[in-house]
Amino acid sequence: MPFSIDQLKTFVTAAEAGSFSAAARQLGRAQSAVSTAIANLEIDLGVTLFDRAGHKPELTLAGSALLREAVQAMESCTRLEHFAAGLAGGTESRVTFAADDLIPEDVAASVLRHFGRQWPDVELEMLMGALGDIGEMVAGGRADLGYIVPLAPLPVSAPAQLVHTVRFIPVASPAHPLAGRGDLSREDVAPHRQIIVSSRGGERCVDERVAHRPWWCDGNPAIHALVRNGTGWAFLPEHAMQQDIAEQRLVRLHFAFHPVPHGAPAYIMWTPTRPLGPAGRWLRDTLTEIMTIR
C-alpha cells in the first residue's frame, strides 16, 4: 500500500518531538495510533525508521536520511495547498508585465520586490520595449498590463491610467564638442550625431530629430551607453540622468530652440482580452499609486 501524507506528518512529528508519546500529544491522537502509523510507513518504505530498543525511539541511519526527504515532501505539500487555494480563489498562476525601458528603475525594483512578497506563488514575466512595443503587447494580450510612454494615441480598446510625465533633457559626454557651449542654436546642433529611440516595430520618435543624420536605436539603455562613450548626444529621461550628471559622466546641453526639459505622458495600461486577477490588480494599483505621487 502506498504511504500517505498523514503518515509522513506523523513520522516528522515523532522525530522532531523525540518520542511517540510527545508526537501523539502534538497531533491530538492516541500513542497507539502514532505507533501504528509509523510501523505501517516502515512497511510501505521497506526500512526501519526508528530503533525501539532503548527507553525512547531513536532514528536509524535510514530514518535520518529519509527524515530530510519527508520534511521536503511536507513543505512541497504545503506549497501545493497554498497554490491550489489561490487558484481556487481566482489568483493567477502568472502575471506578465510589459514595461517601457523608461520606467524608473527604483520604482520598478521596489514594487516588484513587494509583489514577490505579497504573491509568492505567482510567476512574474517581465517584458521590455520602447514606444509602441508596449501598447501592442498589452492590447494584443501578450502582456496583462504595462507601463507605456507612447508617441501615438493609446489603443482605444485598452484601458489605461495616466500616472505621470517623463521629462527629457539633452545630454552628452563631457568630451563632446557641444558640451559647455552655452545656449545652442539648431544650426549649432544639427551637424552633430543625435541618437534617437525607435521601437522594434519601426516606430520612430521623429519629433525629437534635430541632427541631419541621426542614428536610431530600439532601447534607451543602449542610447545611454552610446552617449556616455561620446558616440553622440540624445534626449534622455531626466530621472535616469541625475547621477551621471552629478558625477560628471554626462553634461546637460542647453538649447535655445527646444523646450528643456520637454515631457511625455506615461500610463499604466491593462489588457482588454481578459480580466486581471487579484495579483494583476495589485500590481496595477500599486504602480499607479506610486507613479502618480512620484
Automatic annotation (TrEMBL):
- Write down the InterPro entries for this protein, in alphabetical order: LysR_HTH_N, LysR_subst-bd, WH-like_DNA-bd_sf, WH_DNA-bd_sf
Q: Which GO terms describe its molecular function?
A: DNA-binding transcription factor activity; transcription cis-regulatory region binding
PROSITE patterns noted in UniProt = HTH_LYSR
This protein's UniProt keywords: DNA-binding, Transcription, Transcription regulation
On whether DNA-binding is a keyword of this UniProt record, the answer is yes
State the source organism's domain of life.
Bacteria
Per the record's keyword annotation, is Nucleotide-binding included, yes or no? Answer: no
Q: Locate the HTH lysR-type domain: which residues? A: 3-60
To which protein family does this belong?
A: Belongs to the LysR transcriptional regulatory family.
The name this protein goes by in its record: LysR family transcriptional regulator
Tell me what organism the protein belongs to: Desulfovibrio psychrotolerans
| UniProt lineage | Bacteria, Pseudomonadati, Thermodesulfobacteriota, Desulfovibrionia, Desulfovibrionales
